[in-house]
Amino acid sequence: MPDLLPVRVAPKGMGINEFVAMEQGFFNHEGLDVEFDMSVFRGTQESWKGLDYFERPQDKPFADGEDDNVIQCACQWGTVSNAASGMGRAVKDFYGISPWGIFVRPDSNIKKPEDLADVPIAVGMRAGSHFNVPYRLEKFLSLDKINCLNVGGFSARLEALISGEVEAASLLPPQIDMAKQLGMRPIIEDEFITIWWVPSHMEKDVIRRYGNALAAAENAIKNDLQKYLPTWQHCVPANFSDHEWDFSVFSRGERFMNTALPEGLIEEIFDEVERWDLAQHLKTQDPDYIFYSVGS
């Protein structure tokens, strides 16, 4: 067998494709020796209180100059904003679709989206849990009534909701299914696009092979979802690992779409982040600078 190409991947936890690709040998089949960067992965689950943009766990590989071969993925707004702010490039050849929702405790007086006016909602600053809140709630509330509170990553937001630190939390998989098993109640649920995020100098062939492995994992999951649902155990934050989760009733999380990003998406993203006053760090809106195409 020829030598495998080394690459680091920071799993995002919204889906199980990366873990299925690893366990089923799909990365190796594509000639990749994938190492999961669990320090970044676990860091994205923890509290980000007191951290500014460029200081979050997912930013550190770029800020510390160690971005040589790390592949990450984030929400459509986060990835494009990161790339436009000088942190890597956004891959346009494939993408994901992930569930999202705002949850409250079962005894909460909040019953509908309009009840969230002026209510602090736990989010992770400038990440999917953050951008999704104005994206969905501006249909129901004026922007000055939408109150996003930077709590941090997946685990931190769910912990803050359960403890009563916040009245509402913006959640992604698998915390959505975890919250439901813990009796938390959804106020609004929907889906959003995720985009892969890579160093500007990463070899295109590596990214192409990586996408092929995720596509193989997607087919495997579609063909036998129940077989792979226990893979969610890798995504459960450490603070919740002692709970007996019933993975058999978890949703499948993010879906991998092996096709190019929808036309016009980048223009929509920039219109939205400017409207939400989240464009302060953008250096460019040039698609040729922001996007990275690996070709066929």
Briefly characterize the structure.
With 296 residues, the protein is α/β, with parallel strands linked by helices.
Structure description:
- The protein has helices spanning 17-23, 26-29, 38-43, 60-63, 76-84, 128-137, 154-163, 175-181, 204-223, 225-228, 265-275, 287-290; strands spanning 5-9, 32-36, 70-75, 89-91, 95-104, 120-123, 147-150, 168-171, 185-198, 255-257, 291-292.
- With 296 residues, the chain is α/β, with parallel strands linked by helices.
- It folds into two domains: 5-97 and 193-292, Periplasmic binding protein-like II (D-Maltodextrin-Binding Protein, domain 2); 99-191, 3-Layer(aba) Sandwich (D-Maltodextrin-Binding Protein, domain 2).
- Strands 1, 2, 3, 4, 5, 6, 7, 8, 9, 10 and 11 form an eleven-stranded mixed beta sheet that branches.
- Helix 5 packs across helix 11 (265-275).
- The protein is globular, with a radius of gyration of 18 Å.
- The two termini are 24 Å apart.
- The mean pLDDT is 89.
Classify the helix fraction into a percent range: 25-40%
* CATH architecture term of the largest domain: 3-Layer(aba) Sandwich
* Terminal Cα span: 24 Å
Topology order in helix (H) and strand (E) letters: EHHEHHEHEEEHEHEHEHHEHHE
Main pleated sheet = 11 strands, mixed
Strand content: 15-25%
Question: Count the strands?
Answer: 11
What is the averaged pLDDT score? 89
How would you describe the shape? globular
State the CATH topology of the largest domain: D-Maltodextrin-Binding Protein, domain 2
